[in-house]
Amino acid sequence: MSRPDNSIAFIGIGKIGLPIAVRLAKAGYAVTAFDPNAVRLDEARGLGVTSAPSATDAVRDSAVVISSLPDDGALRSAMLGSGGLIAAMAPSAILIETSTVGVDASSAVAAAADARGIAYLRTPISGNASIAHTGELTCFVSGPQDAFVKVTPLLQAFTRAQTYLGAAEEARYAKLAVNLMIATTAAMMAESLALARKGGIAWPDILKVLHDSAIASPMVKYKTAPLLARDFAATFSCAQMAKDLDLILGAGHAAGVPLQLAAQVRETYTALIASGDAETDFLATVRHVERLSGLGEPL
To answer: What's the DSSP call for residue 16?
Structure first.
């Protein structure tokens, strides 16, 4: 028996997936979620999201399937093959894939979806878990434009902006391009702050300078408060940034684009992970350069 047109299967309810699923349920969608983590499923049920005993049960007959998965391997494992979710989805369904993954993995999903008549929307999310519950995430979208138009109201329930970029893998490249800027900004901030401290500028003062200056991007403004408090609890971890930089470098190599800054910044994250900071916030670059510069904690 088919589910109503507002039915959504949500696969992967982690740090970002769960608050998105909850927002959709509050917006009136019938959300059925699956995650291999039983604790997450219990939390989801407590927040008004129905759970399914398996991913296949979740997607069967759903009008829309949303996935939020950690990496390329998880995406391929979940979606492809005879036991994959694409084989279990209704041919008329729309797949909204929100993960940060590489172009090759995404293209493989696209081919499988096309063979089943499923409309596949690459919809990587920009933002982090700390704002996912607010609806302030943004997304980039590529795939069938008619499917994008159909699900735009759904996307508006958990993102403030939705940018349609084309019919193929454009959204994947957009997300990698944005994350490259975030990674290099983290590296630049680390060096700038260390230089300022060596020049005798007080920690609160240099953070105010950055916050109020011409280079104060939304990311810089967002990060000055936790930096002031020396709070490096992860909103996006060093390990996650390293994974994304590997995707970025792979895409650059495949496209013939020299990404020299990306390669240098990737080595910074290699050092951070080796130092035990894998699960620390990606702005642990600040402490890394401080250590290299002989700086302790600011007074």
So the answer is: T
Distance CA(215)–CA(209), nearest Å, equals 10
Instruction: Enumerate residues 6+ apart whose C-beta is below 8 A from 293.
Output: 194, 197, 198
Q: Name the residue ranges covered by the structural domains of the chain.
A: 7-168, 173-292
Residue 178's nearest CA partner among 218, 129, 222 is: 218
Q: What is the pLDDT of residues 49-90, one digit of tens each?
A: 999 999 999 999 899 999 999 999 999 999 998 889 999 999
Q: Look up the pTM and report it.
A: 0.93
CATH of domain 173-292: 1.10.1040.10
Q: Indicate the helix (H) or strand (E) that contains 149.
A: helix 145-156
User: For the purposes of burial, counting CB atoms within 10 Å of the CB of 65, is it exposed (0-12), middle (13-18) or buried (19 or more)?
Assistant: buried
Integer Cα distance of 72 and 78 in angstroms: 10
C-alpha–C-alpha distance, residues 98 and 65, integer Å: 11
Classify 7-168 by CATH class: alpha beta
